[in-house]
Write a structure and sequence with these properties.
single chain, alpha/beta, FAD/NAD(P)-binding domain, 12 helices, 18 strands
Length: about 375
């Protein structure tokens, strides 16, 4: 089949690889003028690295393995700790922190040079019988059998399907950086999550002497941006226990990126006819569980397997993909929204329901797909 993919980020490139491997004719359209190089680092759980392996992509030599997640208070006391190294031993797939630009490079490696049409902003979509047409800002159009919206939480494809207002701002936003910061944690395989009344700080070694660091603060879209974000972060978090002051001292404003947290309720059916969605276009969620990219890769893996079935028409196969994904992704989305990292105050809540307890639950759910990719494919995903 001919398939249009709108969006050339992680979801779009992964979908292209999966669909090309299934024998489809794929064309990808991306509004950016070239492959994106920002976005700092992301955490690939075992379910994400398992899907990448199935796509023929190795992350060897990139990023840094993460074996443990520690949750601490702002005065340095350890609340909980969770080992995640056992997953690699059981399934053969590690959890890794990797720069987004490096992951995009590996997803693009080996794809046809003309596969992604950059600088093409999709403005309208229409369906006519068994064909779908995308119209772009330069006046051009393209028509195919199916269309996959992989265009993120600002998705044009989702707005075509659902209208405006489906995605809502959450209560926090993140200032983040990926920097060469020389502290002891940078050379380890340990990920720290630190919470207090002022917000939260995450520290994750990403390999090659780089530390992915971020600060979550209360936010709404109407809030003005501080004139000097780093000065504001130092004022807010500089009194926290080591290594937070050292990280803030070593950072500079050029390192910083900001994004506000958003969320949408996952729909049981998120496509229509011969159109569907993957990733944030279908299920935008706060980053508190680090599952955005991983759930996008799970989407792609399931989509590819449903489209490989020839006993149903293409639209029915898309609905089956959405039906299969709904129980898992709706659960993960709710966990991300309700995670105590989004509450912060009062602190007793965090002691009763620590972040790592939900992360442990998430790891169990994620390991189900990891097991399937690593060889137990006879079990149908509905059974998970």
């Amino acid at each position: 089949m001919e398939i249009l993919v709108i969006g050339g980020g992680i979801g779009g490139l992964a979908a292209a690889r999966e669909l090309l491997a299934g024998g489809h004719d794929v064309r990808v359209y991306e509004q950016a003028p070239a492959r994106r190089t920002g976005g700092k680092a992301i955490l690939l759980w075992s379910n994400g690295t398992a899907v990448l392996h199935d796509l023929g992509i190795s992350v060897d030599g990139a990023g840094n393995r993460i074996d443990r997640i520690d949750a601490l208070t702002s005065d340095g006391r350890l609340r909980t700790t969770q080992s995640i190294a056992h997953t690699a031993g059981r399934f053969g797939f590690e959890t890794k922190a990797i720069a987004r630009r490096d992951l995009l490079e590996r997803l693009a490696d080996g794809l046809p040079d003309d596969l992604v049409r950059y600088g093409k902003t999709c403005e309208r979509i229409s369906q006519d019988g068994d064909r779908v047409t995308a119209a772009f800002d330069d006046g051009s159009t393209d028509t195919a059998d199916l269309l996959v919206g992989a265009d993120g939480h600002h998705s044009v494809v989702r707005r075509h399907l659902w209208g405006d207002g489906a995605v809502r701002p959450a209560t926090f936003g993140t200032w983040q950086g990926l920097s060469p910061i020389d502290i002891e944690l940078t050379g380890t395989h340990h990920h720290s999550m630190i919470t207090g009344r002022e917000g939260a700080c995450g520290l994750m070694p990403a390999g090659d002497g780089l530390l992915q660091w971020w600060f979550d603060v209360r936010w709404s879209p109407a809030d003005p941006r501080p004139a000097s974000p780093l000065t504001d972060l130092r004022r807010r978090f500089g009194h926290w226990a080591s290594p937070v002051p050292e990280v803030l001292a070593a950072a500079n404003d050029d390192d910083l990126e900001f994004f506000g947290h958003h969320w949408n309720k996952v729909r049981r059916v998120w496509g229509d006819g011969r159109i569907t969605l993957v990733g944030d276009a279908a299920h935008t969620m706060p980053p508190t569980l680090g599952q955005g990219a991983n759930q996008t890769l799970e989407d792609v893996w399931v989509l590819g397997r449903e489209l490989a079935k020839e006993d149903k028409d293409p639209a029915a196969r898309l609905r089956e993909y959405e039906k299969t994904r709904y129980p898992q992704i709706s659960r993960v989305s709710r966990m991300a929204k309700r995670n105590p990292a989004n509450w912060r105050i009062p602190p007793v809540i965090g002691r009763l329901f620590p972040e790592t307890s939900q992360t442990t639950m998430l790891a169990r759910f994620s390991n189900r797909l990891t097991a399937r990719v690593s060889g137990t494919r006879a079990e149908h995903l509905h059974d998970t």
